[in-house]
Amino acid sequence: MMLQVELVQGKVSGSKKPAKDGQLIFLSVGDKSLYETVAPLSDIMGKSRFFLGSFGNGAAMKLVVNMVMGSPSIVKSLYPTTFPLKHRQKDLRLALGLV
């Protein structure tokens, strides 16, 4: 007997305020048909959702999003408490490692 498991994993971009305001961004991977089934739930909680295919792609895209969002903040010397500098630096290092 073979067990088949369908799974969708979603990385989330956004902090407490975007979560409260329903403005999260979902970066999902896994089973496409299951993703389509649960998509309406993502639409309630977020402003955007993206299906990125295979596992690992969501984590990579989250690093890219954090790198893009973090870079304009660093250039402007803005360091919001919602995303501490030590975490921003970690994500920048990991994103650079993707290339």
Structure write-up:
InterPro entries: 6PGDH_NADP-bd (IPR006115), HIBADH-related_NP60_sf (IPR051265). It holds the Pfam family NAD_binding_2. One of its GO terms (molecular function) is oxidoreductase activity, acting on the CH-OH group of donors, NAD or NADP as acceptor. Residues 7-52 form the 6-phosphogluconate dehydrogenase NADP-binding domain. This is 6-phosphogluconate dehydrogenase NADP-binding domain-containing protein. The chain is built from four helices and three strands. The longest helix is centred in the middle third of the chain and has 19 residues, at 57-75. The chain has a single domain (8-96), classed as 3-Layer(aba) Sandwich (Rossmann fold). Helix content is 51%, strand content 19%. Helix 2 (32-45) links the parallel strand 2 and strand 3. The chain has helices at 16-20, 32-45, 57-75, 85-96; strands at residues 8-13, 24-30, 46-51. The model has no long low-confidence stretch (mean pLDDT 88). The chain has a three-stranded mixed sheet, sandwiched between helices. With 99 residues, the chain is an alpha+beta fold. Helix 3 crosses helix 4 (85-96). It is globular.
